[in-house]
Amino acid sequence: MAEISDLASFSKKVYPALREELQKDIAQAGDHNTPELLDMVTYQLGWTGENAGSKAEGKQLRAVLTLLACEAAGGDWKDALPAAAAVELLHNFSLIHDDIEDQGETRRGRPSLWKVWGKAQAINTGDAMFALANMALLNLADTVSTKAALQAGALFHSTCLRLTQGQHLDISFEKEIEIDLETYWKMVGGKTAALLAFCLQVGALAAGTDLEVQAHYRDFGHYLGMSFQVQDDILGIWGEADRTGKSITDDLVTRKKTLPVLYGLAQEKSFYKIWSEEEITPENALQLAEILQSEGGRAYAQSTADRLTDLALEALEKAQTQGTAGEILKITARNLLQRSN
Amino acid sequence: MAEISDLASFSKKVYPALREELQKDIAQAGDHNTPELLDMVTYQLGWTGENAGSKAEGKQLRAVLTLLACEAAGGDWKDALPAAAAVELLHNFSLIHDDIEDQGETRRGRPSLWKVWGKAQAINTGDAMFALANMALLNLADTVSTKAALQAGALFHSTCLRLTQGQHLDISFEKEIEIDLETYWKMVGGKTAALLAFCLQVGALAAGTDLEVQAHYRDFGHYLGMSFQVQDDILGIWGEADRTGKSITDDLVTRKKTLPVLYGLAQEKSFYKIWSEEEITPENALQLAEILQSEGGRAYAQSTADRLTDLALEALEKAQTQGTAGEILKITARNLLQRSN
After folding, report:
1. Alpha-carbon gap: A287 to the closest alpha carbon of chain B (Å)
2. Which of B40, B134, B143, B180 to mutate to test the interface with A (most CBs of A within 10 A)?
3. What range defines the domain where residue B179 resides?
4. Is residue B1 situated within a structural domain?
5. Has the ipTM of the complex gone over 0.90?
């Protein structure tokens, strides 16, 4: 990998093979009786429909990290392609259903699948992509031992369950007023960290590493996901002040139960009082963000994110990654987890 | 199995073990952070909530047939328990999503899951049960060889895809006016026959039979499902005249594209004219059913069902079933497929 020095160049190198693998997998969805089912799948993947292309496809970060982990663990990234394709299909299945559950009307700059084809077809297409993900993973049996393929299946299916547990809590959070931190972590663990943990572990598995090494990769993915989510929570309230991206205070107006908010509520001071008694509008949200910051919500979340980042990097250290891929993994982690110090 | 002589007594014998297996599988859904997710799963299974009990549980026919096939193929039905539980979980996942997609408000005499918990949670709980089904199947690795467990996984996942293809066509049928018979068979194959084919094949697989024997069991399940669906189509239009159950002409009023209807439309006679031009009400549906019968729709469907029944019984003959379980399978097939001659 002489010319490959960062995530972008590694991604560019693996995209064609990943797409070929995905094409092979999803071809099974559309025979001549069900061409429209395949149309929906390729729309979701960003390959077809209006504004198809790289923005609609997304960065496929999870799939790329899977391949990178395989290489960093001493394997050939091509051996992890079935797992990377499975991860990408699973992620897209969950996006389809999330968009229906949250009434999300756009996804990667285009109308969500359900906005184009209706909810009934969209729910079912999500199910089809879930099945395709399971089928895609089975191709690991061609690149790893039968035993390792079965182990990967077990990991994958329990990861899927954790995703649904996280989503269950996320939906429940909208109604509940009091949420304890343990439940928050369980939600984040399922929604964000479980799939990343799987990606990193299965990459190492495809490289033929033993369970101990796999566990370090898994932990790295887990803490990477956790830290990433907490930083996303921070950006959702104080984002614009620091960098572009999310609209400032968006998460306050929609009353999202993020980590800074949970911390602020637990203090039972001014933030708690305003949150409990007043409507939050784009007008008063800025002031509320300031109050939350003055009551320690931002500092608490940032120090938590830093601690999780440290844990992620420690796990990566223990994994004893190899070569350029290992370096890229470290740099990627640091970039994703922009530390405050 | 001295005291076991029919499907009912076999079911009664295996229900406790099946329930125990399911309990073990679904326990993974609900830790102390997500007890409500487990509540939804057990509600869907008919174990909890108002009017919980045998009616809400359903007959679990697919799981019972899986166990029966294992025994008929010379195995011990207990070895097929992981597959039977997986099938039951998969079937219930598909019911949850079907009820949302079709706006079905009741299921087994109780409010559908989405009527109780809302659509967002219900979609997600369906996904959770899909994941639980995949996890349940993995336990086959304890009762069969690693290779056979992987084969069962491949069969299961492609069956899931066929279910979604069938459902895709079923939803599409509501809008389309012209449907060819090939597409109808593809729909029925996915909606009804694919899962039954899997049940019978995986039962034989768990008994340790080879692919050739498994194929006979699979074909039996496939034709059983196809014939069953066509008979259901007939009962949906002319049911009450012959036996109790469905309300007569229900399928005509809701304009369901069943086999007799497709046959009638293809004749382009009176039935076609009325279907295309008039509203169908409970008042004129009875007359329309008579017209469809006089134009050959009922006879065509019945002879098709009879032919499919013959194919099912032929496949069962080739499977060379053993002992009492084999006899029960034959009797069950004949009962399910009530022949017209």
Report:
1. 33
2. B134
3. 7-336
4. no
5. yes
Residue B190: DSSP 8-state? I
Kindly state whether residue A47 falls inside one of the protein's structural domains.
yes
Q: d(Cα A159, Cα A66) in Å, to the nearest integer? A: 14
For testing contact with chain B, the best of A125, A146, A151, A157 (most B CBs within 10 A): A157
Per residue in B218-233, is it b (16+ CB within 10 Å) or e — as a string? Answer: bbbbbbbbbbbbbbbb
d(CA A341, CA A106): 35
**A125 to chain B: nearest residue by CA?**
B164
Mean pLDDT of chain A: 93
Task: Count the domains in chain B.
Answer: 1
Do the domain assignments include residue B215?
A: yes
Least confident stretch, A111-115, A177-181, B242-246: B242-246
Task: Compute the average pLDDT of residues A142-171.
Answer: 96
- Please tell me the predicted confidence (pLDDT) of residue B31: 81
Look at residue B50 and tell me if it is in a domain.
yes
Range with the lowest mean pLDDT among A173-182, B31-40, B163-172, B225-234? A173-182
What's the gap in Å between the CA of B238 and the closest CA on chain A? 29
B106: helix, coil or strand? strand
* Closest chain B residue to the Cα of A141, Cα to Cα: B150
Distance between CA atoms of A267 and A292, rounded to whole angstroms? 10
Question: With contact defined as beta carbons under 8 Å apart, do B13 and B84 qualify?
Answer: no
CA B44-B79-A140 angle, to 5 degrees, is 80
Q: Which residue of B has its CA nearest to A172?
A: B121
- Interchain proximity A135–B147, CB inside 8 Å: no
Of the candidates B257, B325, B284, B230, which has an alpha carbon nearest to the alpha carbon of residue B13?
Answer: B325
> How far apart are the C-alpha atoms of A196 and A182, rounded to whole Å?
20
Smallest CA–CA separation between B179 and chain A, in Å?
11
What CATH number corresponds to the domain at position B70?
A: 1.10.600.10
Is residue B292 within 8 Å of B249, Cβ to Cβ? no
- Asked whether residue A241 carries a pLDDT value surpassing 60, the answer given is no
**Residues of chain B found within 8 Å of residue A31, distances taken between Cβ atoms:** 165, 186
Q: Nearest Cα to B84, choosing from B174, B13, B3, B33? A: B13
The CB density around residue A311, as the number of other CB atoms within 10 Å, is 17
Residue A340 above 90 pLDDT? no
Q: Which of B28, B119, B158, B165 to mutate to test the interface with A (most CBs of A within 10 A)?
A: B165
pLDDT tens across B228-257, in order?
A: 999 999 999 998 645 544 566 778 998 899
Distance from CA of A233 to the nearest CA of B (A): 21
